[in-house]
Design goal:
single chain, 5-stranded antiparallel sheet, 12% helix, rod-shaped
Length: 216
């Protein structure tokens, strides 16, 4: 009986020691003060950079077709009437080189500077009309452009020569002679030199003088 009592006391003592050890940590802290918890550092989320979308330029709906490059083989359009200048030779005349053919006393003399008046194409002539000479009224099949180079040219139009119908034209004057229009020239005050430009073939047709009607 004593052995059993001693065993009970021993067990009770061991339980008391174990309880004291287990709760010793709590007895050292003030009553009611919660145990501090270690705060974990907040993990900051790294912000991803916002990707901006590049705006594509708006394409115009109207597409412009670029011009075709000009190649060496490209040929210009052929005109309906090729200009005679396409075959123009390279030449020049100095005043001392221009000679007029010898003509009878009082007759006009003409020299050709370019082309051929009798052939198709452009031509240029120069005519010397001696002092006092008068040309008979005449016509040409081609229209002419005339420039007065020297002297005073008395120019008139009509089928009959009429001094009162002439117009004195000094050097530098310019006039035209339409095809089929009768005209005449008078070198009244001195020698006259004219330069004519036209498109051949050319020619001259004299107009016969009108005969006076017989008296009735």
């Amino acid at each position: 009986m004593n052995l059993t009592k001693q065993s009970s006391l021993l067990v009770t003592a061991l339980v008391a020691v174990v309880s004291l050890v287990l709760f010793s940590g709590q007895l050292t802290r003030p009553y009611g003060q919660p145990q501090p918890q270690q705060r974990q550092p907040a993990q900051t989320q790294q912000r991803q950079p916002v990707q901006t979308q590049q705006r594509q330029p708006v394409q115009a709906q109207r597409q412009v077709t670029p011009p075709k490059p000009i190649t060496a083989s490209a040929k210009p359009p052929t005109p309906t009437t090729p200009p005679p200048a396409a075959e123009m030779p390279s030449l020049y005349w100095l005043p001392a080189d221009i000679k007029f053919p010898e003509m009878p006393q009082g007759a006009s003399s003409t020299t050709t500077l370019f082309g051929d008046p009798k052939a198709a194409g452009m031509y240029v002539t120069r005519t010397l009309i001696p002092k006092g000479a008068q040309t008979i009224p005449h016509v040409h099949p081609d229209s002419r452009i005339v420039t007065v180079l020297s002297g005073i040219c008395h120019y008139g139009r009509g089928e009959e020569f009429d001094e009162k119908e002439t117009i004195p034209m000094p050097p530098g004057s310019f006039f035209t002679e339409p095809a089929g229009v009768p005209h005449f020239i008078w070198a009244k005050d001195g020698d006259v030199v004219l330069q004519t430009t036209a498109i051949g073939p050319s020619g001259t047709q004299m107009i016969p003088a009108k005969q006076p009607s017989a008296a009735q």
